[in-house]
Amino acid sequence: MSEIINKVAKSPIITFKLEDYQPQGERLLLDIKDQLFQGLILREKDFRQYVKEHDWRQYEGKFVAITCSADAIIPIWAYMLLAVKLEPYVAHLTFGNLEELEKELFIQALDKIDYTQFEGRPVVVKGCSNVGIPTAIYVEATRRIKAFAKKLSYGEPCSTVPLYKRPS
Predict the structure, then answer these.
(1) 8 A C-beta contact, residue 86 and residue 59
(2) Residues 143, 146, 149: CA angle, nearest 5 degrees
(3) CA distances (Å), 22 to each of 51, 106, 132, 159, 160, in order?
(4) Interval 133-161: pLDDT, tens
(5) Three-class SS state of 121
(6) What φ, ψ does residue 15 adopt, rounded to 5°?
(7) What span, in angstroms and rounded, lies between the C-alpha atoms of 77 and 121?
(8) Are 65 and 95 in contact (CB under 8 A)?
(9) Which of 124, 132, 162, 164 is deepest in the core (most CB within 10 A)?
(10) What residues pair up with 41 in beta bridges, in sequence order?
(11) In this predicted structure, what is the pLDDT of residue 94?
């Protein structure tokens, strides 16, 4: 009887798993819509009182996005004031929604990768992740890996969708 050989495990293919680069931690959305007078207007005195009394320690070590989901004109200084109060506590702060926060976190993680490890190698960007990865991150990872990889595919090493092959 001959030995069973796992050809996928012995192949030179690198499987790139974006989920391995997702920063761990709680994500929060700080929506200031509830701080608006009649849901329409930000009154400086009331807002400053909210900022003064709010417990900012509850954001300790968390990833926070600040926004206003109400259809109102919010002065830029209001978001800046929130940033001043949040910055000492949060792990990361951005303006926008939770998807934009997630994109920023992934971009920071992608910035730390040494892409030369993919030089001249076939790379498969793993699909079917257990975590929510924004489509924009798949696009960005593709752009970065393509500059080094010999071949780029999407899926699983045993069943891939070819995306790019470097010309010989």
Answers:
(1) yes
(2) 155
(3) 31, 6, 9, 24, 23
(4) 999 999 999 999 999 999 999 998 778 89
(5) coil
(6) -95, 120
(7) 49
(8) yes
(9) 124
(10) 37
(11) 98
What would the DSSP string read from start to end of 11-69?
Answer: SSPEEE-GGGGSPPS-EEEEEGGGGSBTTTB--HHHHHHHHHHS-GGGGTT-EEEEE--
Contact assessment for residue 30 and residue 66, using Cβ atoms and an 8 Å cutoff: yes
State both tokens at 36.
Answer: 């608006």
Calculate the CA dihedral of residues 142, 121, 126, 161 and round it to 10 degrees: 80
- Residues 78, 80, 83, 88, CA torsion sign: negative
Instruction: Find the angle CA(113)-CA(13)-CA(162) to the nearest 5 degrees.
Output: 95
- Would the pTM of this model clear 0.70, i.e. be above it? yes
Contact 90, 63 (CB under 8 A): yes
Quote the distance between the C-alpha of residue 139 and its chain's center.
Answer: 12
Kind and range of the H or E element at 31? strand 27-31
Which pLDDT belongs to residue 129?
Answer: 75
User: Residue 129: what are its φ and ψ, rounded to 5°?
Assistant: -85, 155
The two tokens of residue 135 are 């489509």
64 is written with which tokens?
A: 């926070």
For 34-150, where are the alpha helices, taking DSSP H only? Answer: 44-53, 76-86, 98-111, 135-146
Token output for 136:
């924009």
Amino acid at residue number 158: C
